[in-house]
Amino acid sequence: MYSIQALWTAAHHDLPVVFVILANREYRVLKHNIDAYRQRFDVKSNKPYMHMDLTGPVLGFVDLAKGMGVAGTHVAKADDIQGAVAAAFKSGKPHLIEIEIEGQRRLVCESRSAMRMFTVCGNGRGPAMRARKREKRRFTPRWAA
Ligand SMILES: Cc1ncc(C[n+]2csc(CCOP(=O)(O)OP(=O)(O)O)c2C)c(N)n1
């Protein structure tokens, strides 16, 4: 939702870009952070994740694209992805593919090192911190770099 206007730009310049949205209807990375913090500080809580669901209403990305002059395809089944992507490339036009993926799953950190991807603590010195930094460098997803 931060950069959806790029669709209009693609339509305006007639750029043959295929946009793929993995629609989980939630802000999962923040849910993941909450899980990691709770685990890190041994907080037992079953409270829901506040303000992290993108529902009510659900975002309709195909409609958003249409409103900006970009055709779109909604995909609900994995088997339909290949055909949708092939058709989108073949169109030679900008095209948005919205793929419905599972949402609402509670993520559980499998290990302390997985948690450390998201939480950094301590005074920034010492072997433990250096190990954390090494892990962070190794595992940091591109968007978190
Ligand atoms: C334009 C823009 N660039 C970067 C960010 C930083 N950012 C915050 S969460 C996130 C990743 C979200 O991952 P995604 O798979 O889209 O959703 P989620 O896993 O949270 O459900 C990024 C890139 C941002 N919010 N907006």
In short:
By secondary structure, the chain is of the alpha/beta class. The chain contains 6 helices and 3 strands, in the order H-E-H-H-E-H-E-H-H. The protein folds into 2 domains: 101 residues, 3-Layer(aba) Sandwich (Rossmann fold), CATH 3.40.50.970; 37 residues, no CATH class.
Description:
The chain has 145 residues and is an alpha/beta fold. The protein has two domains: 101 residues, Rossmann fold; 37 residues, no CATH class. Helices cover 39% and strands 12% of the residues. A three-stranded parallel beta sheet has the order 1-3-2. Helix 4 links the parallel strand 2 and strand 3. The longest helix is centred in the C-terminal third of the chain and has 14 residues. The protein is elongated and about 50 Å long. The C terminus is likely disordered. Thiamine diphosphate binds next to helix 2.
